[in-house]
Write a structure and sequence with these properties.
By secondary structure, the chain is of the alpha/beta class. The chain has helices at residues 32-49, 65-75, 91-95, 120-130, and strands at 4-6, 12-14, 22-28, 54-61, 80-84, 103-108, 111-115. Helix 1 (32-49) packs parallel to helix 4. The longest helix is centred in the N-terminal third of the chain and has 18 residues, at 32-49. The radius of gyration is 14 Å and the shape is globular.
Length: 131
Amino acid sequence: PEISLPDLRGKEVKLSGVEGKLVMLYFWAMTPQMKMFNVDQLLPIYEEFHKKGLEIYSVALEADKTAWASVVRGQKLPWINVCDIRQEASPLLSLYNVTSLPYAFFIKDGAMMEVKVGNAEEIRKMLAQQL
């Protein structure tokens, strides 16, 4: 399903418009654990695989857009960052059957693959196979 949410500048960004050989659709919330996962695990993965065709469309479920923007800017997260202020009430969670956070899907050639986000090595292994 299509996602269209505002980025840091308030501009609507559509998931369907994201270019990349492999797109990671990443749902997260601003808990301390998930914020650290972004910096400690996801950022090195992005830096390693972006040149090979990985793009990330990151959906933060956060009511406080100012706090979210501050975290994204402070962590210097270079991928596509959007925010859904509806948090747990977001219809995206049921559309994508997101049962816990963080949660990720990978989209390649229009097909979606579900991957556990908690283990960065599994993500890295899958990316090495796909890219």
